[in-house]
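Before any further analysis, we paired sequence with structure tokens, yielding the entry below:
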Amino acid sequence: MNHRTIPIEDYQKLPASVTDIKQGCRDHNRKFDFYCLFHNEPCCVSCVSEKHGNCQKLKSLQEVVEDVKSSASFTDLEDRVQDIRDLIDIMITEKQDNKESLRLQKNKMITEVQNVRKIIHNHLDKLQTDLLDKLENEEKNQSKSIDSFIEKLFEMHKHVEEIYNDLNKTKQHASDFQAFLCIYKWNQTIEKEEKHWMSWRTNQMMMS
């Protein structure tokens, strides 16, 4: 029957979508006795006379609702609800998997970037060490070469200084004959030192 009374404990377990449905006609304040298959709505006796007089698909409400929970339409609705629920669950799982995959991919990329950064950092450290070692060795070699050259210059300066002093002493104390005899010897010595100086000067200019 369409107006069968149910226990209070069963009623309390009903969802709001069911309990909110009016069990009688709002317009006429009467119970529903019929169901219009054309308009897909229940109706009372007054509704039938006012709005459904020409409806040919009008059935007794008791006939329509009898065994509805075991009907094909109810079973089909259950299947459709279950199917869409399963599809939603599958989609949720897929999206959660996608999210986890993104997280793993992000962490993998972070690790790869950190590894590349470490490799680059180590490579730069090695380049820096090699460059500093090269500069250090180059400085030592150049300093050694300069020290050797300065030593030669000091030796040359010593020889020239000796000639310079001898010339002054000769000019002050020797006779013209003695000075004349020494000029040739000193010219040879100075010419030799001049050639050395010019040779070294040329080499220094080519190296700079």
Summary: The chain has a mean pLDDT of 85. The chain has two domains: 1-66, 89-207.
